[in-house]
# Entry
Amino acid sequence: MTTTVSAIAATSATAPLTKTTIERRDVGPHDVAFDIKFAGICHSDIHTVKAEWGEPNYPVVAGHELAGVVTEIGSEVTKFKVGDHVGVGCFVDSCRECEQCKAGLQQYCTGEGGMIGTYNATGKDGTPTYGGYSQATVVDENYVLNIPDSIPLDKAAPLLCAGVTLFSPLTHWGAGPGKKVAIIGLGGLGHVGVKLAHAMGAEVTVLSQSLKKMEDGLRLGANEYYATSDPDTFTKLAGKFDLILNTVSANLDMGAYIGLLAIDGTLVELGAPEQPLEVPFFPLAGGRRSLSGSMIGGIPETQEMLDFCAEHDVTPEIEVISADYINEAYERVLASDVRYRFVIDTATL
Ligand code: NAP
Ligand code: ZN
Ligand code: ZN
# Structure
């Protein structure tokens, strides 16, 4: 027995997304069933749907920023009750036994198959996983997050991927008072990064393609804002930053950005460029600088991030859309025309 729910699916890399229905499993002893109220649109959804990361398993029901309300719990569930506000991010299970899983870093699970993605993966029951562009889902309680009451569900959704993807490297590399942090790209990920880094007490600079969004960037908490289309930016800011987080998926001139790092500084790749990164030797070695990468965050740090956002009043800037608007929304994300995250109101499904 399963439950049929409405959803938005992609059936090929080029066809527009359309409404459909999918099946959700019955609630097992450790499961939480919840009505998805809002689902964020992450650029990764678009990469996946458009087969930019390899051919996905169509139909793809994307969405890994889910926020909703618990409707049913399994007999063994202890962490949640009916009516709770909950969220799910990029994965719904993992091996639970490897060192990474035990350390709460499920995103780096080294067990067979690694973490199980919220969509475009195969669940432990052998059925395909379908994501947040739908009305309800069933997820094991260990992969469900508690959304603090003070964060409205529509604004909570983008925190489940964009939020933790920035929170994790910011905390890992010690962003805080006295640290100079730059964020490349003021999009879905970048704008949450500005808010988080500011709330952590770091000095924040936005490196955007142009100065079009400068007023927003400063309002969100940036101390400074520069256009990367202006070559002077790279002279003025040379050697300045302790930490640079790159949220851009286009291939950038890595040498130029690495040159903005202080000695021993780190540039962390978060965007997922199509072509391999080209890294010149001298800017890197000449400042004992590091190039790193980081992927989303584990369950404990995702909860820590949600609690931090509640405490520091950090919420994303969103544009709530109806299900019918999905294809336009995708186009606008591709055109960097989103301020700053689209969130689907799943009641419109
Ligand atoms: P987004 O909302 O589209 O933001 C990306 C930003 O990059 C844009 O707003 C734009 O900012 C800048 N940009 C776009 N095209 C550019 C170009 N050609 N040259 C320079 N800058 C450009 O996307 P997102 O949802 O934040 O995701 C960003 C990337 O992170 C995607 O590749 C996504 O797949 C990846 N991602 C990674 C993780 C992870 O775990 N590492 C998690 C989620 C997403 P400006 O207009 O300010 O320049
Ligand atoms: Zn994402
Ligand atoms: Zn594991």
User: Anything to note?
Assistant: Residues 152 and 315 are 9 Å apart (CA to CA). The chain has a mean pLDDT of 97. The first strand starts at residue 2 and ends at 9.
